[in-house]
């Protein structure tokens, strides 16, 4: 799914289907047929950063719920932080017809249990953000696209 940013900048957020066979190849652990994953892979492209990681399913649900509340003009927290605080959504403007949201990926926030970084630290430990202006139709599209991606990432058939 694409968040269309102001000034032609975009954020690409893609969930990656969970594959039990690939999990077994990578870990050597064979999963039961009724195993339910607690996270899914995701690819995030924002600014010069293109990252591949995993995100908790509960974090994706929080994002969907936050955008649904925005669409319905309910009170929301001005900042939603997920992915151990590295991915955040800041509500900058909340008019009835238009919302402005800053999406930030901050590599300087440490992730528990992750060791040292490889690569260019100046790029990794930097915050990238894009501001997006959305109306009701765009919010509906975001919600539907996120729900579809989550469903397809968990569907094994």
Which properties best describe this structure?
157 residues, alpha+beta, Transcriptional Co-activator pc4, Chain A, four-stranded antiparallel β-sheet
Topology (elements, then pairings):
Layout: E1 2-4, E2 10-16, H1 20-27, E3 39-46, E4 49-56, H2 57-71, E5 79-82, E6 87-94, E7 99-106, H3 121-124, E8 127-134, H4 136-154
Antiparallel strand pairs: 1-2, 2-3, 3-4, 5-6, 6-7, 7-8
Helix pairs in contact: 2-4
What does this entry look like structurally?
By secondary structure, this protein is α+β, with helices and mostly antiparallel strands. It has a single domain, classed as Transcriptional Co-activator pc4, Chain A (Roll). The chain is built from 4 helices and 8 strands; from the N terminus they run E-E-H-E-E-H-E-E-E-H-E-H. Strands 1-2-3-4 form a 4-stranded antiparallel sheet. Helix 2 (57-71) packs antiparallel against helix 4 (136-154). It is globular, with a radius of gyration of 17 Å. It starts with a strand and ends with a helix.
Briefly say what this structure is.
The protein is of the alpha+beta class and 157 residues long. The protein has helices spanning 20-27, 57-71, 121-124, 136-154, and strands at 2-4, 10-16, 39-46, 49-56, 79-82, 87-94, 99-106, 127-134. Helix content is 29%, strand content 34%.
